[in-house]
From TrEMBL:
InterPro entries (UniProt xref): EamA_dom, EmrE-like
Protein's membrane topology: Multi-pass membrane protein
Domain spans labelled EamA: 5-132, 147-274
Lineage: Bacteria, Bacillati, Bacillota, Negativicutes, Veillonellales
Main location: membrane
Keywords, comma-separated and alphabetical: Membrane, Transmembrane, Transmembrane helix
Record's keyword annotation contains Transmembrane: yes
Protein name: EamA domain-containing protein
């Protein structure tokens, strides 16, 4: 559990730094293009490392590895769109819905049992999302929040697939990362369209940082899901909300409304309670 905690916190910090730089590029460069370069740089880095260390590709579960990559790539694309047009903390809070989707997917797909008392905490999280998104008010409803929610769902599907793959025990972490990154590159490339923006020198540097930091973030994230069950690993990353809020305040002078703070607290408490219930259920 201690190792899973370290991996989850490290991945949350690394992903928050990546989000910071994605937001810097988001207004000037299409999200699909950022997704493409993130995947390309990561693919080259991971493939080079695997060659250096003599890590071979397996011949099993290639279809599942590809599906995991597609889910991850689509999740990245949706998240990058949300980051460009939302406050960092707002987007980060909605990204944490991936924990709820993991809860649902792991129950349906991995046949992990639902702990008693989980229903009320799921309702608290749904109420928190409603407070943030404000679906009852057309003027206040933030349409880009739908991209954040979709990104959370795709990410959860990818995380659940990671857990399924590691339960099979035939795949190295770097192999799982490679499939994710190369598929992310393909997803971004296919959706770039005719509006390609050739990066200038500053943008190339930022893209390099995004690609590099994402490799470390993905390594720690994969390690967290290998070290513990999917629910606990995902909820441990909630600290990423605070990292994103810090970058948003320091770099972009973003502030949070009291309703967003309330929603974030509600989601955090409910998520922690769900993780505890899940952990207790696993020990029974």
């Amino acid at each position: 559990m201690r190792q899973a905690f370290f991996y989850a916190i490290a991945s949350a910090l690394a992903f928050s730094i990546m989000n910071l730089f994605v937001k810097m590029l988001g207004q000037a460069m299409p999200a699909a293009e950022i997704t493409f370069f993130r995947g390309l740089i990561g693919t080259v880095a991971v493939l080079a490392y695997m060659q250096l260390k003599g890590i071979a590709f397996s011949t099993e579960n290639r279809g599942m590895l590809t599906i995991r990559g597609i889910f991850g790539g689509l999740g990245n694309l949706c998240n990058f769109i949300a980051l460009a047009y939302m406050k960092l903390a707002d987007a980060a809070i909605l990204f944490q819905l991936s924990g709820i989707f993991v809860f649902i997917f792991s129950t349906l797909y991995l046949k992990e049992s639902v702990p008693k008392g989980a229903g009320k905490w799921l309702l608290v999280i749904l109420a928190a999302v409603a407070i943030m998104v404000k679906p009852w008010s057309f003027s206040e409803f933030h349409w880009y929040s739908l991209y954040a929610i979709a990104g959370a769902a795709f990410a959860a599907a990818a995380y659940t697939t990671i857990r399924k793959l590691t339960m099979a025990g035939h795949h190295n972490n770097y192999e799982i990362m490679f499939y994710f990154l190369v598929t992310t590159m393909l997803v971004g490339g296919l959706l770039m369209g005719p509006n390609f923006v050739w990066p200038d020198m500053r943008q190339w540097v930022i893209l390099g940082i995004i690609g590099g930091i994402s490799v470390f973030a993905q390594f720690f994230l994969t390690g967290a899901f290998v070290a513990t069950n999917a629910i606990v690993a995902q909820f441990l990353q909630y600290i990423g909300v605070f990292f994103n809020a810090m970058w948003g305040f320091v770099i972009f002078d973003e502030t949070l409304s009291w309703m967003t703070i309330l929603a974030g607290i509600m989601m955090f408490i409910a998520s922690v309670m769900l993780a505890r219930l899940k952990e207790q259920n696993v020990k029974v």
